[in-house]
Specification:
The chain is built from 16 helices and 13 strands. By secondary structure, the chain is α/β, with parallel strands linked by helices. It folds into four domains: 129 residues, N-utilizing Substance Protein B Homolog, Chain A (Orthogonal Bundle); 35 residues, no CATH class; 56 residues, Sun protein, domain 3 (Alpha-Beta Plaits, 2-Layer Sandwich); 199 residues, Vaccinia Virus protein VP39 (Rossmann fold, 3-Layer(aba) Sandwich). The strands form two sheets. Strands 5, 6, 7, 8, 9, 10, 11, 12 and 13 form a nine-stranded mixed β-sheet that branches.
Length: 445
Amino acid sequence: MPVDAVRDAAIDVLLRVFERDWQLDRSLDKTLRRKPVSDRGRRFMTQLVYGTVRHQLLCDAALQPICTQPLEKLPEAIRAILRMAVFQALFLDTVTRPAMVHTSVELAKKRGHAGLARLVNAVLRRAPNSLDDVKLPDPAQEPERYLNLRYSMPFWLVRRWKGEYGIDGARALCERFAAEAPMQLRVNTLKTTREQLQAWLAKKGIDTAPATGLPDELTVLKGPGLVQSEAFRRGDFMIQDAASMLPTYLLEPQPGERVLDLCAAPGGKTTHLAQLAGGKADITAMDLQFRKLALIRENIERLGTPGIRVLAADAAAPPFGVQFDRVLLDAPCSGLGTLRRHPELKYRVSEDSIRRLADRQRALLRSALRCVRPGGVVVYSVCTFTPEETTGVVEAVAAECGARFEDGPEILSPWAISQGQYQTRPGQEALDGFFLTRLRAPSSA
């Protein structure tokens, strides 16, 4: 019998993530572009790949006791098939057990051989039916190990969070990151209003509601695919987490000013800067990778945001000196605040990588301060909440360069943690975990 096309395509997505360290969203987008499926198939494939990656360690814990050989000895495709099957058994009430076993065996026949198909069949017939059937450490006796496996959170992260927030705080973070992130929209107010877009979407069966207090945010409650909608094609909105809108509000770009977005891809914040300035600011969007520049240009064109030029350059050594009124540095970071949207990151981040990122972030912030005019404004933001990448970066560089922390507009006050510094944490409303700071450069005396 033919394999299930959606599940087969999902394995392609997972193999890029597991074998080649692709970002999950990029891998899914590549597959969907090559193998168009129905809206229902798209939603199911998305659920499969995100759920399998999000719960990878839990799936392995369920599989290892019933597999006759170590999982790491199996071909990557077979591991992916088994993990995806167990995810369906544990979390998807809409998939029957016979369907889960049969489709997985057919996938194993295509991706392996008859012997591997028999192994998959034997293992999955013994697979647990629910979370209650998975043998996990006792949360009272081994709380860190329990959180590690139950929520597929690397042990070092659980231990780190326990040290920072206590075991209850670590549990809360693990639970939050095991949930799916809401889809959020930034209304393009250069083309429409929030009320107009909300009404148009409602007519198409897409229910939305404001969830964060930001004037151009809408959170999707239910409805069919947004990317295929006419409103998306005509540039009425950008799919963007509300927390990532905060840095542009903090920068407060004004009409007529020269603004630099140092690490601009994929262009969400760049186009938001143009929007907040009413399309009347002179904005330079910079990124190092040519592939990412294409994404920026694509979003600029679709959203119709004027006044933006795109430049390929290294943010650590920009090809210009002091000339900007305001600079936004959304720095490369560990991304731990976005684990609901990017669950693959938790398997790739390490203590060493956080330290290396902090070194680079300090260098980039120094670079940003060199580009801004005397008395100008720099905003530093990262989608994480580690001390090394947040306060550790900005306080060291501010002291070194003589910059001072400065509060932003009142709209950001719910997230203020100290003068000029703001933090959102997963679990606060519908937001990802972001840290952002506003610095005023020294004035020339």
